[in-house]
Amino acid sequence: MDHPWSDKKIIEHCRLLSDSYCFWTKNEIIDSALDDESLSFLMYHSSFVIVSHNTLPDPVFNYANMKAQELWKTDWDQFIKTPSRLSAEPIESNERQKLLSEAAKNGFISNYNGIRISSVGERFKIMDTILWNVIDGRGNYHGQAALFSKYEFL
């Protein structure tokens, strides 16, 4: 897809990401007063990484902005077919449970650090990542998303 940010479903998804981020964190990703298309454009072209995955038992990415695609060295069409677990090294079960418990309690985590793996096998550490549950206005769960700007290649 040449311009994913302009697709109606992606525009709606970006609004959902933005609104649920604001709901949990009380902050905005990008000015939420913008119209939906402008919000989608700016999120897609932002200088920080934004990714999300769906609610399947083995969640698959359903959004990756340009910065994420550059970092993982893949394009939109490939990224959104990738199970999110394949982008990361396995983490210790106790650490995973701690993260899941915090996310369940607060709806988000604001201090996540972890090792990720690009599509070409490069490892990098993401730092100070915000993970949040993506929900709609009725509280229906749509998956999880992450936002970060700090990372270093290992």
Describe this structure in words.
By secondary structure, the protein is an alpha+beta fold. It contains five helices and six strands, in the order H-H-E-E-H-H-H-E-E-E-E. It is 34% helix and 29% strand. It is globular.
Quick overview:
By secondary structure, the chain is α+β, with helices and mostly antiparallel strands.
Distinctive features:
about 150 residues; alpha+beta; Beta-Lactamase; 5 helices; 6 strands; globular
Secondary-structure topology with pairs:
Elements: H1 8-25, H2 36-44, E1 49-53, E2 61-64, H3 66-72, H4 76-79, H5 93-106, E3 108-117, E4 123-135, E5 141-148, E6 150-153
Antiparallel strand pairs: 1-2, 1-5, 3-4, 4-5, 4-6
Helix pairs in contact: 1-2
Q: State the CATH class.
A: Alpha Beta
Rg for CA atoms = 15 Å
The secondary structure category is: alpha+beta
Percent strand: 25-35%
